[in-house]
Amino acid sequence: MAEEPESDTRVAMSSGGEEKFEVAPAAGPLPAQGEGGGTGPAQGLTVPPPSTTPSDPPTSSAPPSPPLGSAGWARFVRDRWLSIDLRTLGLFRIAFGLCLIANLLDHWAGGNLARFFSNEGVLTNHYALYAPIQQRVWSLLFAFSRPGEVAVAFSLILAVYVLYTIGWRTRLMQILTLVCFISLLNRNLLLQDGGSFTCSVLAVWTTFLPLGARFSVDAWRAVRLAAVQKTSGGEDGGGSTGRATSGGAPAMHVSFVCLALLLQLAAIYGLNAANKTGPTWTGGTAVHYIFWLNSRNTWLAGLMRAHEPAWLSPLLTRGTLVFEWSAPFLALSPVFQTPLRRVLIASMWCFHLGIASLMSLGPFAYAMMAFSLLLLGPNDWRVLEPRGRRALSWLARRMAPAVGIARRLGPLVEVGLLPVAGLVARLPADVGASLRRSALVLREGAAVSLAVLMLVELTLANGAIPPALQLKGRPQWMGEILYYLRIYQTWSMFAPEVPREDGVIVVDAVLSDGSHLDPFTGRPPDFQRPLGGPCRYDHDWSEYTYYFPWDRHRAYRIGLRDHIVEVAATWPPEHPRLRSFEVFWVSADLPPPGERDARNLRRESLIAWDGR
User: Model pTM?
Assistant: First the structure.
C-alpha cells in the first residue's frame, strides 16, 4: 500500500475492528503538494484509495450494515457523499478551464468585444456604474474603456484561464479565475443567462477543493521537487520527503464541499423540472416551440423543424422531464452508486450535447458537461486511467520537442522552489499540524455557511418550493454575498413555459441618398425575419436581443442608439451618410404543432434618432 501522508486525517482500525479517524502530525520536512506553489499536503480530510486487489478480501470485522452511531456509518457517509478522487478534480479543472476559454473567445469573436464590452458598444462602463442593472455590480473591466484596452484585459483573462487549465499555481488561479469570470459577467449583465449562474456557482464551490493535485503543472513540479530534495542530500537524506502517490498528494479528498456539489447538481435539475408546469410541458409541445425560436436556434434546429414528425416533440419533451426528475436520485443514491452515476454522466452528455446542437445558450451546456465529470469515482478511473496513459503516450511521441524543452526547464523551476520548501521544512511539526487543522476548520466552516446561504436563496427564488418550506426573507448580509459572488439559485430555464412568440431587432436607417439600411446586416431592413428561418445569432447577440425589449431595461436602449451612431461614423467617405434611424422589435406568434408558418406579425418602435 502507498505510504500515508505525513500529516493528514487518516483512517485507522481500532482494537475492536471499528474504523476511526485520527490526525497524525508531520515529521521531518514537508514535501511539496503542488497546489499554487505551496509545499504542504492538501488541506482537508484525505484518505488513501481503497484496495481492490484479490489479496484484500473484506473482513468480518466490518459488517455491511453497522449499527447506528458506529464508525461504520461515518465511513458509509464519507465514501458515498463526502469524498472525491483527486484525479476527478484534475480532469474537471481541465474541462471547466476549456469551457471558460471557449466562453471568453465567444465574447471576443465577431466584433462582440467592442460591441458589448467597450465604450464604443451598447453599454459604456460609466453608464453600467451609473445605472446598474443589478445590485452590487463590480468588475475589473470597468477600468478598460476602448476596444484596444479591453483586448488587453481579455488577453490577461485568457492567460489566467490557460494557467488554471494546465494547473500552474492552481490555488491562486482558482481565485483569479473566479474574479475574472465575475468581472466578465458584471461588465454587461444584459448577456447573463443560466450558463453564467452555473459557471459562477461551480467556480465558487470548487475554490475550496485541491484542483491541482493531479494532471497539473503543480503535481508534476511536486514530484520533481521531491526528487531534487532527495538527491540534494541533507541530514535526513530525503527519506521523509518521498511519497508513492502522484504529486505527493493522497488519492482521495474528503470535504463537505463534495456533498454540496451533489446537492447543487440535484437542485439545478430538480428545480428546473419542478418549475416546468406550463401547458407546453404538460402537453408535450415544448420542444416543438423550442425548434421555432429563431433568435436562439442553430441551423440544425431549422432542419429538424422542417421534417418534424408528430411524435418527436412529445417524446423529447417528456424525456427531458424524466431526465431532470431522475438526475437528483441518480446523483445522490447511496446504493448502486457506480452504475447509476455512469448512467447520469452519459445522460448529461447526451442531453447537453443535444441542447448545444440546437440552441445558443452560452456556456450552460458545456459547464454542465464539465460538472458531470465530478461524478467519476475510483471504479471509473480503473477503466479510464489505462486508456488515458495510452493516449498520453501517443500524444507525447508527437510532442517530443516540446516535452524536451519542458524537461530542460524543469530543473530551473525546481531549484527556484527549494528555498521555499526549506523554509516550510523548518517549521516545528506541531506548529505545521496546528496550522493545517485550523485551515481545515475554517474552510469547512465557510463551505457549510455558504451552503446554508444558498439553501435560503433557493427557497426564496423558486416558486416550485412548497409554501410551507418557503422563507419570508433573509438577512441583508446574505443578499450581499449572493450579489457580490453572483451565486443565484433561480433554476427555471424555459419554465414554467416555453415562449410561444419570438422576435428580432430590426433597424431602419435612412441614408443621405434616401435609401434604407439595417446597419447590423448591411442590407435593407427585413420586417419579415420572424417568418423565416433561424437567425443563427451568436450567444451574445442572442441574449442581448432577448433582454433588450424588456420594459425594465428601457433605460439601456440609449446605449444601442449611441452605438449605431458610432458605427455609422466609421463608414468610409464614399458611403452615404446616416440621417436618421428607428429601432423596431419585430415579433410573431410561433406556429402551433402541425403547422410551419408563424402568424400575427407585429412591430414595436423602441427608439428613434434624427441627426438632421
Answer: 0.82
